[in-house]
Amino acid sequence: MENLRRKMIISYLKRKKTCTLKELMEEFNVSSATIHRDVTLLASRDAIERVRGGLVYNDAPDANGSPAAFQERVVANRRLKMNAASKALALIEEGDIIFLDSSTTIYELALLLTHAEFDHLTVITNAVAVMNLFRKFPPHWSMIGLGGNYDPQLNSILGDSALEQLSRLNITKAFVSGFGLDDSTATTNHERQAEILRKVLDAADRRYLIIDHTKIGRKGLYRIAARGGFDAIISD
User: Fold this and answer.
1) Tens digit of each residue's pLDDT (9 = 90 or more) over 74-124
2) Which of 3, 70, 102, 208 places its Cα 20 to 30 Å from the Cα of 171?
3) d(CA 231, CA 236)
4) Rounded to whole angstroms, how far apart are CA atoms 225 and 196?
């Protein structure tokens, strides 16, 4: 019985990519002590990986080659991010040229896109985790991964080369997130990321800020755009 449950935990996590211990307790209707025993054993076999706040499947795109800090951000407030991302998905249309930034909120949107059925879609991104998802996108889609300097903290591509490449690209819809949103401005704490996002928003026909409610009222160091500069602000 225990072996069967542990196999089911691996299957569940493989499908979900990340989850919390509480989710597993509810899904399999077992105690905290039981889940902790199962997780400890599975982690010792490298079937899963423990991060702060939850677990990731070892072959999940966010775990494969991504820094631990990124993995931890994927788990944090994941249900809120998923709710916001599902609303954003409804805005994407056949033939769009979309930009996806390197935030974990937008990564949830990229995960949803792996199950979308558009015939033609172009994805532009500076997110290494999204680039790693490309093999899961339909083969007739196009992806443009920006080149430039790799930032391991953000797991993203930044810098002058990426900015120059963006200046030559058309974007129909940009989906971005940030550290915070107050009454006037969307902000981030990363200067080079702010440069990328401002360039993206300048190039985009439509601009969408995807942000969960825990970030509303917060203010980061660097300005991304005025609140009124977005066509829509989407939250959980």
Assistant:
1) 767 788 888 899 999 999 999 999 999 999 899 999 988 988 889 999 999
2) 70
3) 17
4) 12
